[in-house]
């Protein structure tokens, strides 16, 4: 499912601020360190909490719980409780969560391909900073 995007230009700074706030909130959610891992893990279908915990290397129970709650709150994930002993809880991507997987995958691929360029830029920056410090002293 693809949604069309209409172009809109704010006419003043107040409108601009109001327009940017929801975008920045969504970007803050999806830019979270663990969000990408959870979205990727759930892209293969529904998972139980314990399965996600095993699949996502290094995530704590607290961070997984927090990330899943945020993703559920923002409409990217659904949580289904099946009455049993103990209760079974499954997490699954919503349509919006599945739509998000593709751009996150593209960004992840771009980061992987360009990792060396970023590392080189950091090295150049560090060298320039070191030279500038030498000039000050």
SSE map:
Elements: H1 13-30, H2 33-42, E1 47-48, H3 49-55, H4 61-73, E2 77-82, E3 88-93, H5 95-136
Antiparallel strand pairs: 1-3, 2-3
Task: Please describe what this structure looks like.
The protein is mostly helical and 137 residues long. The chain has one domain (13-136): Orthogonal Bundle (Arc Repressor Mutant, subunit A), CATH 1.10.10. The chain is built from five helices and three strands, in the order H-H-E-H-H-E-E-H. The chain has a three-stranded antiparallel β-sheet. Strand 2 (77-82) and strand 3 (88-93) form a beta hairpin. It is extended, with a radius of gyration of 20 Å. The termini are far apart.
Task: Estimate the strand proportion.
Answer: 5-15%
The percent range for helix content is 55-70%
Number of domains: 1
* Mean pLDDT metric: 87
CATH architecture: Orthogonal Bundle
Task: Give the end-to-end Cα distance, rounded to a whole number of Å.
Answer: 60 Å
Alpha plus pi helix count: 5
- Give the C-alpha Rg: 20 Å
Question: What tags apply to this protein structure?
Answer:
mainly alpha, 10% strand, Arc Repressor Mutant, subunit A, 137 residues, 3-stranded antiparallel sheet
């Amino acid at each position: 499912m693809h949604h069309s995007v209409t172009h809109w230009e704010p006419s003043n700074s107040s409108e601009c601020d109001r327009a940017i706030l929801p975008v920045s909130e969504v970007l803050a959610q999806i830019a979270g360190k663990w969000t990408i891992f959870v979205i990727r893990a759930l892209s293969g279908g529904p998972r139980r909490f314990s399965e996600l915990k095993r699949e996502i290397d290094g995530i704590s129970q607290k961070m997984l719980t927090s990330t899943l709650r945020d993703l559920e709150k923002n409409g990217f994930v659904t949580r289904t409780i099946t009455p049993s002993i103990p209760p079974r809880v499954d997490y699954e991507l919503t349509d919006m969560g599945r739509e998000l997987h593709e751009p996150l995958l593209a960004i992840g691929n771009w980061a992987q391909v360009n990792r060396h360029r970023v590392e080189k830029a950091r090295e150049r920056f560090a060298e320039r900073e070191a030279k500038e410090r030498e000039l000050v002293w």
